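To close the chapter, one final illustration. This time we ask the reader to focus less on the individual chains and more on the assembly as a whole: which components sit near each other, and how the overall shape emerges from the parts.
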Amino acid sequence: MLGWLKLRLRALFRKNEIENELDEELRFYLENQTEVYVAQGMSPEVARAAALREFGGVEQAKEQCRDARGVSLIEELWQDLRYGARTLLKKPGFTAVAVITLALGIGANSAIFSVVNSILLRALPYKEPQRLMMVWTRITQLESTSGQTQFSNSATDFIEWRNQNQSFEQIAAFSNHNFNLSGGGEPEFLGGVRASANLLPLLGVEAKLGRTFRTEEDQPGADRVVILSHSLWQRRFASDPEIIGKKLTLNEETYTVVGVMPPGFQFPGKDSMLAGLRFPQKVDFYIPLALTASEARDRGRLYLAVIGRLKPHVTIAQAQADMDAVAERLVKQYKNGRGVMLVSLQHQVVGKARNALLIFLGAVAFVLLIACANVANLLLTRAAARHKEMAIRSALGASRLRLIRQLLTESLLLAMLGGTVGLVLAIWGVKLLIAIGPTNLPRADAISVDGRVFGFTLLISLLTGIIFGLAPALQASRLDLNESLKEGGTTSAVSSGRNRIRSLLVVSQVAVALVLLIGAGLMIRSFVRLLGVDPGFDPQHILTLDVRLPFHKYAGPQAGNDQPAGPQAAAFFQQAIERLKTMPGVRAAGGANPLPLSGGEEGSGFVIAGRWPPAPGEVFNAGRRWVSPDYFKVMGIRLQTGRAFTESDGSGAPRVLIINEAFVGAFFPDKDPIGKRLFFNRGSDGGYAWREIVGVVKDVKHSALDSDPKPEMYFPFSQFPSWNMTLVARTSGDPMSLAVAARRQVLAVDPNQAIYNIRTMEQLMDNSVSQRRFNMLLLSIFAAVSLVLAAVGIYSVMAYSVAQRTQEIGVRMALGARAANVLKLIIGQGMVLVLIGAALGLAAAFALTRVLTGLLYGVSPTDPATFAMIALLLLCVALVACYLPARRATKVDPIIALRYE
Amino acid sequence: MNKEKKTELLQGTLELLILRLLQSEPLNGWDIMQRIRLVSGAVIKVSAGSLYPALHRLEARRLVVAEWDVSEKNRRAKFYKLTAAGRKQLEAERETWERYTGAVASILRNA
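The assembled structure is written out below.
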């Protein structure tokens, strides 16, 4: 081994010495042989020539000796690289075009891969995250009216599941919880999580300071302990290392700090939309779940998220079957049909983004293929110019393999240069993607360019180098020495083969570009459709302010987060709305919770028949909103029948509600709903209350512009005061210009409450389509790049063809062909290829656009209008790309053309 | 294609012959050439153009080592010497060769 290495290293570094030795060795032989011939009576010159002849190809033998010594691989690679670099430097224009083309293709791929890598491939930051499952309640009879498939869980179900399941190592529950932190500085509103003691150990995280909860703290009475998030600890407590054991006042009660979580830990992540549960954007604290006896008995309230860690080697299907059996038993026990659904945490977090990301990855790979075709084209053109060079090298003893290797080395060098520039573009592109990306992109904060992205870039660079380099290399190395070395060089056989490859490249470029363009066209049409959708309200000139009231000051008679606030809260909002109304520039003001398109979603179960308790299957569910009397007027939501709320629908007045048209369609398809009563569960006391329907309003796109309106109910907010409200003001001018003044007016009512978001309704609309806009934009960019690349490809092939046919065109013109004939000839030649490509592209698009189904709105994936329009667009661009070289052909001067070559 | 196959066949045989010639003493390329001519006469035609690459291949495979020395005519020449690995290879190949030729010969005789 050592000897071998010495030989190779010597081969690499002592090249001249070895060459000299080789020369000397062969000279020794030749001189001996010459002497023999001289001794036989030949003259020295003749003898030398005879010796050479007898030897049989000295240079070839030398080349073979070099090969044999295995100098080659490393040595030749180095040689090839240097040679390749020199050739590339000699043609800076060619090199620049090729590198830029590749950099665009590779860079786009790396950027998209970075996103895919961070979102889909990188494991969630918990211990063995693949074993983590979310557990949701299924209520089949509500799925059609609510459009919701995952419901949060009742405490009773959670406890039954925990006791009866066979599949989970551990199972934990958590819900959102808000606190007012007072004492030691400004009172502050905190968002947090109430979690069973085993949640954090189940995730496999430990406290940075102190500890997580003990099992005995998960009991009412022992649960006045709190774990702080790292950021809260830093911000509010100045990273106090002595924080453990200190007392905090939360909602007027004393809690002891037992732990601080590590930096960056966030659960649930802000991105996981957990079945309508509104977890805070940022979790400030954890407190024990500590279910009370009455909570544990309540199977009606669905408010818990449940997560389980599967036992090792239990599959999700096995666990689902096990949980189904448990649910079956519960159905019998409680006489109430509910199912259960397991979803892996990974899927819960990134499931929605997955499809779009994979499509982007596919689209961007198409772009790279088109880029490869262009570079292959360039190389083919250059190969024609280097024909003689190849022939000479071949004559000097380079084997075909050797030539291919050299040409491939050059391609790889190009690809690596492209990859390097592409990586820079990718790093920049990822930043751009995050900046323009939709607001709800999951795990967006984790997106980064890491080692895996570098590896990916290297891999695709190598791959592209081979893809675009192989065909030209094979072509260029296929030589007929005699033909090649003759004056006038290119043989017809070689050039026709090369033209065939070129034609193939044009056809495939057109086909691939058309697929991308059609995809983008469908997305654009969807988006235009979406922007044309009537949201059911008039979003112009509306300012919105999210207000959250401090807990202690506005608490109602029943303490607790989920209880209505006190009448002070209703009074506060009333006053704030009055103040807004009097502002100059404000035409009307009101309030709602939750506001359409704000991401908030609340619902409530009800019974139509006058029986209580209801039979199974008689409880329905619909969206629930609390609104001020003027809300419909402010938003421009039309009243269809009945009346709107008035100031007199207060806390003492009869309970009323207004429903939307979808509600009428679902529950009163052929009856007049006005005057009908709905019955509602009052919650903890097991009683019920009824409300009378007084009006019907037009449907509003509440959750998103692209989802169908669902049954909704509006309650007057003074009949159930809420902690949160979004105040809305219709202004006569730019709403944002009133933002500061409006904020001042609200603060004037009570300086202690928090206004945490001031936006216009148009911004909210904009946010709600940001995902689609992003998808459309990205696919359109890819399609545009591919169109440009394909046009350049067609142009360069046609231009080359014209250059090749100069002589022929000259002859034709000399024989009387007119410019129009020549134009037709050249354009015809190009357009035949384009049409073949377009036909293939249409067929491929027909088969492929199906994957877009989930991303489209109001457009079929095989929409004939889009297909036709986009194909036409492509043909027009291709026509221009053919026309430019064709026009040059008509300018050929027959005299010059005939002298050409 | 056809031509390549023939040289390949020749190559292996040529290398075996070289190993055999080097068994008794180190030789330079010229010497080896003369001995092949001497021993096999006109039957096997080997050109120097294929001998030298064969020698270099053997050297690369560490079956022989090369050393610069002075030839009979007082000129510097590269001498090839069999290594232990080379000896082993020679034994193995000779055996294969004899088995092969023996088998062919017996078929030719008896079939």
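Confidence is low (pLDDT under 50) at residues 487-493 of chain A. Residues 345-385 of chain A form the longest helix (41 residues). With these observations in hand, you are ready for the problems at the end of the chapter.
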